Amino acid sequence: xxxxxTKITIPITAFPRAIPYLWPGTVVRKINLPNKITILRLxxxxxxxxxxxxxGNLVTRCFAVGLLAVIAASDLLDGYLARRRxxxxxxxxxxxxxxxKFLIVSTMWAFLFKLADFPRYAFYIIxxxxxxxxxxxxxxxxxxxxxxxxxxxxxTTNCFQxxxxxxxILKSFIKPTVMLNEIIFVITAGxxxxxxxxxxxxxxxxxxxxxxxxxxxxxxxxxHIDGPSNRAL
Length: 233
Description:
This protein is mostly helical. The chain has helices at residues 2-22, 24-30, 33-53, 58-84, 90-114, 120-144, 152-173, 178-209, 218-226.
């Protein structure tokens, strides 16, 4: 009975001390620049999907393409700044894959409903891979306290995915030529092949990383709990 009361009273007594850290201004100041860019990218994705899905004029279509270009550029920028400024954080390692998967999966759903000729096999394979990798990466991050680094194959796959998105959006905005259709088909087929290959590659890397047992040392637990709080978000 005493143990149950302790579990209830400790969070209640600790809450007032945490109130200053819940103030939005304090939280924003503690977040570093790369993570702010990642959060901005997350916020721009719904607007990109909205402007792509609505049947607007040329201005709204160009705005959707511009938003996609900004999103793609911010993905490269936040990673570069995090490495250059040595500001790789626990929050960034969580937010970055969330933003990447959110962009790809939401765009695939938009393609499925907006573009009648978008191949369904590409939709199923890409969405499955993104969901599979996201769940796997988060499990390894939580259980193993480490993140699998993006391989060259993974980076190449991401580039092909963004290129495929640009190609299909361009095809939906203009009257496609035979050459453009062939180029988009090749990029889509290459993206699907790379998607399957990168899923297998990450699976092999995850098996090599392994998953820890339940008996973690006290020092490892302390490092996992206290480590992120000593760094900027």
